Structure to design on (662 residues):
C-alpha cells in the first residue's frame, strides 16, 4: 500500500517531465519557413509539427471589392510548413470559439485557404485572387466537408435530425429494381451534382484545388492533388493542407504565400473573408 | 454602377451592370382576383423541379395570403422596413431603389432569411386583415379583407440576384430574359439569396449551390407555357413576352394588359428590379396597401378591371388565360370570339366570350326524369 502511494508522485513527475521539456515552437515573424522532413505529417496532431517555426500571420478584412467584409473577425492565423522535397504541408491554427460545419440556408461553414502564385516570376500576381495572365493556385478547406469526410451522412436528416421527408420520386417502388433509372432521375433533381460542380459532392476530400486569375474567377484546378485534415481544438481549428510543392519552391528557394480564413458564425463566404497579403515563404536549404 | 432606364419607376436608376435588354423578355400576367390558393401551381412546380434532396423546403412557386402570409417569413415587410418610407410623385418614383440604397460593402440592400423563416410556408393563410365585428358581413365593401398572392421568380430586367453574385454565376438569357443560376459555376455564397427582394433564390444544402425558378425554360423553348401556368385550375395566369412601353403592340396579350390597358402591375416596382410578372390587383383590398405593393397605378388598374364587362377586348383577352398549354404571343377578337395566335398570326386556340347556357328542367318530360339539386 505504502509503496503504491509513493509511486503516485513519481508517476506525476513522469507525466510532467515531457510536458515541461516540450518547448513552445520557435516563431518566425518575417516569413514562413518550410522545414525539410523525410515524410509529411497529414494530421495537425502529429508530433512532427512540434519544433517547426510558427509564422503568426495577421489577417485583414477583405474590404477592397464588393461584397466586402467591413468588420474584422479572425485576427490571426498561425502557420507552420513542412516539405518532403516533392510536397508541402501547411498547418493553419486559428482561434474560433464557434464551430460551424453545417450547410444550410444562412448557415455558413468555417473555412481556410492557402494561395500560391502559379509561377514564381519577378512580377507577382495581385495577392487578392491573382490577376489576368498571372494565375494563383488555391487550396481551400471547409469544416462542413471535413465533417462529411469524418463520417457525417449526406442526407437532409443528418443536417436537420428532425426533418421528415414524405417521399423522393426516385425512391418510388416501381423504380427500385432499376438503380440506373433511379440514379438518372435523382440527378435530374440535383443539377449541380449532375454537372459535376465540385461544390456538390459526393465528397471524398475536405479540400478543393482551385485556380484564379482575379476576383470572381475562381475555378477548379485541372489536377486535384491536394489533401487536408482539420481538427477542432479547444481554441478553434487546426488544419493541415498539403499539396505538391509549388513551382519554383525547393531547397533554399523563396516564393510568396497568402492565407484566408472564413468565420461561419459571421456568415463569411466568398469574398467576405479575413485574408493576408503575400507573405514570403522560404524552404530550408538541405542540411 | 451604371445608369439604366427603368420604365416602371419612370426614371433612370443605378445598377451594377449597364443596361442590356434581351431580344425578348419572358413576362406573365397573374389575375389575383381569380386565385383561390389551391396551390396546384405550387405542387406542379414542386413535382417537376424541386423533389430532390436538399430541395425539400424550396417553393419556387408559392401562394401566400396577404396581408399576413409570407414565404419566407416577412420577406416583403423586412425589406420595406430596411428601405424606409419612400414616395412616388405621379408615375415617377422619388425614393431609393435597393441598388441605390445598398449599404457599404454590398451591391444591393438585402437581408438573408434565417432557417426558421422558411419553416412556415402556410403562415397567415386565410387570415383576415382584422377582426370581423358583428354585422360586418352586411357591409359592402367588407372592412376586413385578404387576398392570395401567387409568386414565382420575376425574371427581372435588373435582377438583384445577378447583381449580387460576385462570381457572375447568375445570368440573364439574351434570347428570352429568363434568369438562371449556372449550376456548374455557383459556389453557394448565398449573396443572391440575400440580394433578391422577392426571396426566390434558395440555397440547396445538399449540393452547396443556390437554385431558383427557371421559368420552365425547356417548355418555353418548345413554345409551351410553364407548369405553374398550365396547371392553374383558376386560369389566373398567362405567359408571354413583354415589349418596352414605347414599343408596345396591342395584339401582344401581355403588352395589351400591361401597357395598353395598364390593368396589370409589377410587384414592388419601387425596389427597382423591373420585375416581369404583372398582377391584376385585387379589387377589394384597401388602396394604400395596393399602392405600396403595386405602385401608383393600382387605383386605375382596378377601375379598368371593374369596367371589363363593358370592354369586350379586355374581357375577351382575360378569357384566353389558361385555355391552352401553348404560348400565345398574339391575339385578336372577332365578335364574341377571342383567338390566341402564333407569331405568324395563325390561330392556335379559339374561345367563346360567352359559353352557351343550358337549362335542365327539374321535371324533364322528354326523358321522363326528375332532377334533384343537392343542397
Amino acid at each position: 500500500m505504502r509503496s503504491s502511494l509513493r509511486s503516485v508522485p513519481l508517476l506525476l513527475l513522469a507525466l510532467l517531465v515531457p510536458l515541461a521539456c516540450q518547448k513552445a515552437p520557435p516563431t518566425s515573424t518575417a516569413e514562413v519557413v518550410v522545414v525539410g522532413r523525410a515524410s509529411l505529417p497529414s494530421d495537425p496532431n502529429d508530433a512532427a509539427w512540434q519544433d517547426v517555426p510558427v509564422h503568426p500571420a495577421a489577417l485583414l478584412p477583405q474590404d477592397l471589392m464588393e461584397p466586402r467584409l467591413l468588420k474584422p473577425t479572425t485576427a490571426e492565423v498561425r502557420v507552420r510548413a513542412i516539405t518532403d522535397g516533392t510536397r508541402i504541408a501547411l498547418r493553419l491554427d486559428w482561434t474560433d470559439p464557434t464551430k460551424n460545419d453545417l450547410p444550410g440556408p444562412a448557415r455558413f461553414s468555417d473555412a481556410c485557404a492557402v494561395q500560391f502564385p502559379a509561377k514564381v516570376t519577378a512580377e507577382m500576381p495581385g495577392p487578392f485572387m491573382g490577376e489576368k495572365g498571372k494565375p494563383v493556385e488555391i487550396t481551400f478547406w471547409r469544416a462542413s466537408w471535413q465533417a462529411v469526410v469524418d463520417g457525417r451522412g449526406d442526407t437532409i436528416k443528418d443536417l436537420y435530425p428532425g426533418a421528415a421527408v414524405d417521399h423522393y420520386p426516385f425512391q418510388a417502388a416501381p423504380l427500385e429494381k432499376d438503380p440506373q433509372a433511379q440514379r438518372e432521375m435523382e440527378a435530374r433533381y440535383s443539377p449541380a451534382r449532375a454537372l459535376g460542380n465540385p461544390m456538390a459532392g459526393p465528397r471524398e476530400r475536405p479540400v478543393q484545388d482551385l485556380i484564379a486569375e482575379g476576383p470572381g474567377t475562381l475555378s477548379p484546378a485541372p489536377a486535384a492533388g491536394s489533401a487536408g485534415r482539420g481538427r477542432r481544438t479547444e481554441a478553434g481549428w487546426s488544419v493541415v493542407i498539403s499539396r505538391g510543392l509549388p513551382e519554383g519552391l525547393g531547397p533554399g528557394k523563396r516564393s510568396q504565400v497568402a492565407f484566408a480564413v472564413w468565420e461561419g458564425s459571421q456568415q463569411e463566404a466568398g469574398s467576405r473573408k479575413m485574408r493576408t497579403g503575400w507573405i514570403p515563404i522560404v524552404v530550408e536549404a538541405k542540411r | 454602377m451604371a445608369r439604366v432606364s427603368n420604365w416602371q419607376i419612370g426614371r433612370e436608376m443605378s445598377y451594377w451592370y449597364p443596361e442590356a435588354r434581351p431580344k425578348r423578355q419572358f413576362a406573365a400576367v397573374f389575375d389575383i382576383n381569380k386565385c383561390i390558393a389551391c396551390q396546384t401551381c405550387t405542387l406542379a412546380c414542386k413535382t417537376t423541379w424541386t423533389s430532390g434532396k436538399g430541395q425539400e423546403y424550396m417553393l419556387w412557386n408559392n401562394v401566400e395570403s396577404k396581408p399576413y402570409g409570407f414565404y419566407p417569413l416577412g420577406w416583403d415587410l423586412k425589406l420595406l422596413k430596411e428601405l424606409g418610407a419612400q414616395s412616388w410623385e405621379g408615375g415617377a418614383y422619388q425614393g431609393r431603389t435597393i441598388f441605390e440604397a445598398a449599404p457599404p460593402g454590398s451591391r444591393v440592400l438585402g437581408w438573408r432569411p434565417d432557417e426558421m423563416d422558411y419553416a412556415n410556408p402556410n403562415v397567415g393563410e386565410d387570415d383576415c386583415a382584422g377582426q370581423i365585428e358583428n354585422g360586418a358581413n352586411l357591409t359592402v365593401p367588407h372592412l376586413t379583407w385578404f387576398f392570395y398572392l401567387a409568386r414565382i421568380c420575376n425574371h427581372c430586367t435588373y435582377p438583384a440576384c445577378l447583381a449580387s453574385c460576385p462570381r457572375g454565376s447568375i445570368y440573364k438569357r439574351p434570347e428570352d430574359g429568363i434568369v438562371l443560376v449556372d449550376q456548374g459555376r455557383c459556389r453557394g455564397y448565398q449573396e443572391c439569396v440575400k440580394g433578391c427582394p422577392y426571396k426566390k433564390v434558395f440555397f440547396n444544402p445538399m449540393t452547396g449551390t443556390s437554385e431558383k425558378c427557371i421559368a420552365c425554360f425547356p417548355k418555353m423553348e418548345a413554345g409551351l407555357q410553364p407548369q405553374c401556368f398550365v396547371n392553374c385550375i383558376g386560369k389566373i395566369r398567362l405567359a408571354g413576352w413583354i415589349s418596352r412601353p414605347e414599343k408596345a403592340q396591342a395584339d401582344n396579350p401581355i403588352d395589351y394588359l400591361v401597357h395598353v390597358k395598364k390593368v396589370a402591375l409589377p410587384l414592388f416596382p419601387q425596389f427597382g428590379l423591373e420585375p416581369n410578372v404583372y398582377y391584376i390587383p385585387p379589387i377589394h383590398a384597401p388602396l394604400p396597401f395596393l399602392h405600396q405593393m403595386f405602385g401608383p397605378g393600382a387605383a386605375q388598374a382596378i377601375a379598368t378591371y371593374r369596367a371589363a364587362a363593358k370592354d369586350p377586348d379586355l374581357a375577351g383577352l382575360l378569357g384566353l388565360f389558361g385555355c391552352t398549354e401553348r404560348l400565345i404571343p398574339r391575339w385578336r377578337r372577332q365578335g364574341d370570339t377571342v383567338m390566341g395566335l402564333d407569331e405568324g398570326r395563325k390561330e392556335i386556340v379559339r374561345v367563346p366570350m360567352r359559353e352557351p347556357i343550358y337549362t335542365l328542367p327539374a321535371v324533364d318530360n322528354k326523358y321522363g326524369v326528375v332532377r334533384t339539386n343537392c343542397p
The CA atoms of residues 174 and 182 of chain A lie 10 Å apart. Chain A has one domain: 24-154+202-283.
